[in-house]
Amino acid sequence: MTQILTPTDIPAETPVASPLLRVENLNISFAVGRGRVDVVHDVSLSLDRGRSLALVGESGSGKTVTARSLLGLSGDGARVLADRREILGRDVRKLNDKQWRGIRGKHVGFVLQDALVSLDPLRTVGGEIEELLKLHRFGDKAERHARVIEALTRAGVPEPELRARQRSGELSGGLRQRALIAQATALNPELIIADEPTTALDATVQAQILDLLASLKADGAGVLLISHDLAVVSAVADEVAVMKEGRIVESGPVEQVFGDPQHAYTKALLAAVPRAHAKGTRLSAAAPVTAIARTERAAKLDPSAPAIEAVGLRKDYTGPDGITRTVVNNVSFTLETGTTLGIVGESGSGKSTTARIALGLTEPTAGTVSIGGHAWTGLSERERAPFRREIQVVHQDPLSSFDPRFTVQKILRDALRAAGTDRAGHPARIAELAEQVGLAAAVLDRHPLTLSGGQRQRVAIARALALEPRILVLDEPVSALDVSIQAQVLDLLADLQTAFGLSYLFISHDLGVIHHVSDRVLVLSDGEVVETGSAHEVFTNPRQTYTQTLLASVPSLPPHTR
Amino acid sequence: MSGTVSPGSVPEIADPGVDAQSVQVPAAASAAGFSAPAAGRGSRPNPVWRIGARLLGALAVLFAVVTLTYFALKLVPGDPVLAILGGGGAAPSDATVAAVRAQYGLDLPVYQQYLNYLAGVFRGDLGTSYIFKRPVLEYLGPQIWPTLQLTLASVALAWLISLALTLLTVRRGRVADAIGNAVEVLFAAIPPFWIGIILLVVFSFTLGWFPVAGNADLRALVLPALALAIPLAGFLAQVTRSSFAEALDQPFVLSARARGASTTGVRIRHALRHALLPGLELSGWAVGSLISGAVVAEVIFSRQGLGRALVDAIVARDTPVVLAVVVFIALVYVVVNILVELLVRVVDPRLIRKRAAA
Amino acid sequence: MSVLSAPVTARSRNRFLAELARTPITVIIAAVILAVILLAAIWPSLLQSHDPFGVDPQANLLPPSPQHLFGTDQSGRDIFSRIIEGTRQSLVVGVGATLVGLIIGGLLGITAALSGPRTDAVISRIIEVLYAFPSLLLALLFIAIAGTGVTTLVFAVGIGTAPGYARILRVQTVKVAGSGYLEASLALGWGPRHRLWHTIVPNVVRPLLILATLGVGQAIVWASALSFLGLGAAPPAAEWGTMLADGRNFIQLAWWIAVFPGLAITVTALVTTVLGRYIQRRTDGVTR
């Protein structure tokens, strides 16, 4: 068992022609209460060596459960049935736990999302990889150590000796993900299952991880990629299977499925991806919001002045260690009334701090902000309060911004009261707001906790609209949403902008989203403005190398897809 | 369960105490590039300096406890001299009272008495018992070991019970889980003096397996230790069982299973370690609480010990003894907490950032 | 998996019944027992079979029988009736002590969290020092100063538990003060007074119900421990801890004298724990 070096080291009885993975009519159900819930129906898959198959779908589509059943790890209470479930030509339907353990890690490597939690945070990276080797009785201590270093090196981890002694919490996001891949591939498994391997990573890091997966494929491994991101899939996969509600609705070569989608769901998914040429067009099939003219109130802001004018913003923070860091430096921008300014940058670029300054929640160390011609920085809270309703915010995670005691109805009523509007009109106004953002009336009595991500985001938007603001700061408003829900929310935001003449400060790490929504774009990196210009200019003809690299690292759908 | 952020899930919230802005800062370092060095985690103070600060803090707590207790006990109504001279019944002459007052230094101003006491503490002199007319240390000395023995045995037993309860009942099917749950709640609700009496009735009177009373040997330690351990085990198990279940839900457990680890292997090598942490942090508090809670076991099983000495002293208004016991308990609390902290670092070698925030 | 999430039941007339059907059986049993305990506390004579103070030398040390459900003590008093008699005091002490603990702990913890960093540091140090005193020790110290008696008992136990509450409430307040929804109410334009009274206070107070429920049972245990040590209610009183201590002297002759009062304490503590944890689970998602 010590010689596990080549991908061709497979059970001898296996006919060479058999594919790496073959699944026919896979059905998975879970025990829930007294009954069972079916989550995967009649799924059939096949994957050869040196090829990559992608399972694409949104949350709840059953793609993750399908992938885990290939490791015999579907979870407690799962019932897995299939006409055929073969790995390396071996029928795995009736394996006991011990036999499964012989396959896991050795023949099938499994890569999960975010290694911060996918590697034991209390153990060193090297220790985790070594555990794999020990479990499969690989070599002696020295050989194992050598293999750990080799695996890390192969996964592109610099200074492998050092990294092996560190814990996942000490590594950057990209390194963590590489360590995780090293862990899954240390024994050269023939099949690699990667479940959302790049979600939560910045674009440039994502590109590097995708390259790594592609190189594993080139070395002869079969890669089963699970993703919600169509662009990621198109970068690595040869074939794709689109899943919806536990079924494969369409499958085939990537070019065929993305280039000429047959199923309505595939078409909708592809249309939902915000891209350059989709700008101005609708992403979802949802009907446009029927604009309800809003009651005009005395304008506090000058409509002819820019919605937001920020000049020379700087923000320093002193950490607990006494070291002062500048997280935003010399940032200036202008948001013209009725338009959208997109701020794009990777994590740590200072975009959220910029948003907080614009909202008047953080006072800048230097620089000024004015909204609608009114000074907005350097004010006392008492002076600021009357203008607060003019500039509202929607966050990535609206849940934490809702008082946990409140139902949706109360959230909206609280906002209306904050605006000081007449109480008698509240019920009607709440109904109107719910309609404007496309929330069913039944949702009003529920707690946000029981709502879906898309619904929560609509509640957050409704709350912001309740104050009839002129400006909305949208801080990663769609980053936590599935692509079809994202499409609906982006369409909604576009409708509302048209209806009410709102000005948007739109912050996102997603270049596609920024390109789709923005009139002008500001590129931030390390707290400084790298580039600014019209969306068209910045995306088609970036002047700065940073922007060019950033744009190049984004996987995009093949241009011929509709 | 799927990889994307599902509607029900809430993005992880940063450590409480660390504000949102400062969290962003280390991220800036890692965003600089893929091959950037490990994200800076703020300052890493020199360990010697840190241990020194920790010891100073411990001393400060001890000092505060002594001071607080000293002045609190000055509020005890009644003239201590009367307690010294045999309580209200005795009718000592004024001359005797004055003599005793001078002998015990009670004629000095309070702050002077306090300073004398502090000076005494540094010399290892905790005063003279009002009742026994002997140095407090000489009187309490023989009581310390039996109580420590009882306390340590109880903590060890409590850990044993809660670990067994954790490993045997968490995620072992609905029945096992329900049993674990029931036992943990029941144990936590049982008063130690009641379980002590029941153990006494069953194992000493009826079965005759263990001696009824005394501190003679280890056998005499079993029942009192068990009486104290059972309620503590209930509390510990609540913490370890829930954090064990939480750890088993973490993706790293799935990763470990996916590399071929068995269920048992994952439980012991990965999840257990995570489950130990909160229980360990509770142990400092538990030891302090046991050492005074030992009194009930000492009363039921007629054992010698600090707890009984304390209650007797409170009833007899023997303030020097009360003060000494309190100081001793605080000392144990402080020492155990330092040990626990060291132990926690062994189990969780990640940086001390959580500590700093707490 | 959203597929697996149970549909939310719509409003209906049978909402109560539906709710009841979903409630675990242990919780229902606990609620029923609590109702009986409350009844015993409010209207003891309804449940008593004998005069709890009626001495009957002829009937002393009788084992449990249909006549005397829990037997009789050395003076021939009916133990069952005495336990019923003692319910009110145990509950009053438990609830009173919890209130005292919550009020003192709350004042310390919430003030610390809401004041500036310097005051916070000072109060936190005080809490830390108090926390070095185990609950029972703090209670004993208080008794050493204030003497024995039921009122002192309430305060002794309350003060004993206060440092623990102070810690929890400080953390809870810090959490609310740093919450997204507090910031959201600032962004909506609410003033400082509204944010304090309509956002911070209610959200800090919310988990108190759970804390209090869990705390009452423990307070009863602490209080009876002190009574057991002879530092609480004086012997003739029908207090559970005192009865238990009393029965200890006859343990070899009549186990029931000590065992049943202890059972009463355990059951009360158990019931409050079960209910407290149930409320906790129910509101968990909402009380972030």
Task: Give a written overview of the molecule.
The complex is a heterotrimer of chains A (562), B (358) and C (288). In chain A, a hairpin with a 2-residue loop joins strand 1 and strand 2. Chain A has 562 residues and is an alpha/beta fold. The radius of gyration of chain A is 26 Å and the shape is globular. Among the domains of chain A are: 47-60 and 95-274, 3-Layer(aba) Sandwich (Rossmann fold), CATH 3.40.50; 308-390 and 469-553, P-loop containing nucleotide triphosphate hydrolases (Rossmann fold, 3-Layer(aba) Sandwich). Helix content of chain A is 34%, strand content 23%. Chain A has a six-stranded mixed sheet, with helices on both faces. Chain B is mainly alpha-helical. Chain B has 14 helices and no strands. Chain B has helices at residues 20-31, 47-74, 80-84, 94-103, 110-123, 136-169, 174-189, 192-206, 218-248, 251-258, 263-300, 306-316, 319-347, 353-357. The radius of gyration of chain B is 26 Å and the shape is flat. Chain C is mainly α and 288 residues long. Helix content of chain C is 69%, strand content 0%. Chain C is built from eleven helices and no strands. In chain C, helix 7 packs antiparallel against helix 8 (192-205). The longest helix of chain C is centred in the middle third of the chain and has 36 residues, at 79-114. Chain C starts with 14 loop residues before the first helix and ends with a helix. Residues 1-10 of chain C have low confidence and may be disordered. Classes of the chains: A alpha/beta (562), B mainly alpha (358), C mainly alpha (288). The A-C interface holds A 30, 32, 37, 39, 59-60, 62, 65, 245-246, 359, 361, 381-382, 385-386, 388-389, 392-393, 395, 397, 400-405, 414-415, 418-419, 442, 445-447, 449-450, 452, 463, 467 and C 1-4, 8, 10-11, 179-181, 183-192, 199, 202-203, 206, 285-288.
